[in-house]
Amino acid sequence: MRSILFFVNSFGKGGAERVCVNLGEEYVKQGYNVCFITLFENSSYIESNTKFNICNLKLDEKMSKLELIDSIFRAKKNINSFVKKNYGSDGYALISAHLPLSHICASLSIVKKECLYVQHTSLLQENRHRIGYDLFYKFKNNVCVSEGLKREMKEKMGIKKLECIYNPIDLQRIYELRQNSIGDISKPYILVVGRLIQTKRFDRAIKIFKKGEFYKKYDLYIIGEGELKSELIKLTNKFFRLQSMMG
Question: Where's the Glycosyltransferase subfamily 4-like N-terminal domain (predicted)?
Fold first, then answer.
């Protein structure tokens, strides 16, 4: 039996994590031995799921980035032991790492050269390189989930080794969900979906909706959960009363 290996931060609610779990479940159906190396623990999923072989490093999310990187270095032996154990006679059919910390984890493993380093979000802030990112990814097998990310890494970071592969979509699940009623919506609307965290910049969507006076023709619906939920609700109430679908 061939194996599939994912390096991912956790089994949390983030989009990258959800993509990995969806892919993993599909690979299980196809008869693969699906393995995960995760950094942070999400106990409810780990305890209830028996489909995957999981190596959880149980790192503390409250640690600084330097402390986290140091802890990953210290876990190198355990990481490689797990990789070897699940290698099997037929090897890995696919190895991929998702999000920067998991990229570091994969880069320390014995399968670092075979690994695909998947970019789910921008690595730049205010058009400045994050120190060392351009060098770190220069010779790796980089995959971007959008053409925009690919263009950014190529033009602004000088990364040439790039491919674009879109996130998978469970069409059957979408067909099932679209039968559900979401209430009476008679006015044209703008829909924004995602995790309610700082990097997603939902605050900008609300401010642009106000400044551009889009509210005169449209409603704005925001669907998501996250740490900034209450802040974003306060922001909408500051400008006007918007119908909210946060949660």
Answer: 14-173
The identity of residue 55, as a single letter, is: C
Where do the domains of the chain lie? 3-164, 181-239
On average, the pLDDT of the chain sits at 86
**Inter-residue contact 229 to 244 (CB < 8 Å):** no
Q: Would you state the pLDDT for residue 176?
A: 87
- How many angstroms separate the first and last alpha carbons of the chain? 41
Q: Which residues contact 196 (CB under 8 A, 6 or more apart)?
A: 202, 222, 224, 225, 226, 227, 228, 229, 232, 246
Residue 107's nearest CA partner among 141, 67, 132, 134 is 141
Sequential DSSP letters for 22-41:
HHHHHHHHTT-EEEEEESS-
**Fold of the CATH domain 3-164:** Rossmann fold (3.40.50)
For residue 237, which amino acid is it?
N
DSSP structure class, residue 245: B
Percent of the chain at pLDDT > 90 equals 49
Strand partners, 141: 116
pLDDT in tens, 27-71: 999 999 999 999 997 655 555 567 899 999 999 988 998 999 999
Beta carbons of 161 and 139 less than 8 angstroms apart: yes
Residue-wise pLDDT for 79-115, tens only, equals 999 999 998 778 899 999 998 999 999 999 999 999 9
